[in-house]
Description:
Layout: E1 14-16, H1 17-24, H2 28-35, E2 48-50, H3 51-56, H4 75-85, H5 91-107, H6 121-182, H7 197-212
Antiparallel strand pairs: 1-2
Amino acid sequence: MATRKRTTAPTADTVSIHDACLRYMTTEQSLRLALSHVRPDDFDTVKAVSEADLEAIASYFQPELPVVASTSESPENSQNLTQQTSEPATEQPQNALSLQGQQQHLTAPTPGSSPNAQMTLIEQLTRQASEEIAAVDAIAQVKNQLILNNLAVRDTELTESINQHWQHQKQGYLGAIRDLAGLAQQKLEVTPDETDLTQEIEGIITELGKKLIV
């Protein structure tokens, strides 16, 4: 695995990420995306960049406003400017037509070109970042739903496992109760004693006496 470069802290010779965003009128995310082409190792963590790095990514953003020329120009430059503005009037219509044609060429949409082809780099990077955030958010939502689904399934499985164990254990209890109940003996009916022992003895003695009398 490649070792990442150490994050550069702001110094007197560098420009902070915040100031760089203000210079190019862009967002920090768009700036770091552009820096990934010149600083692929630490574009996402660097805190400050050099002027050379900013010049290297300048083409990814809209051009900066042109610097107004200093009023303290040399007399030679002033003379050249005066000579250029005092050219014959016959050349001005030709230059005007040429400039007008260039403007029409720049502003007129190319036939058959799609709206995406006219998007600026910042718009494209912004759109890409927005769609990427939406995609990452969707992935996170799906993962969360899967986690909740897995928890629900595990809860159902655990509930069913406990239920099955109890059903088996309950049948064991019922079997033991039936076995114990089967050990009970049936109650026997007591035969009633209808013989009067005294009366029977007297009857036997009476019969014996009758046999003994002459």
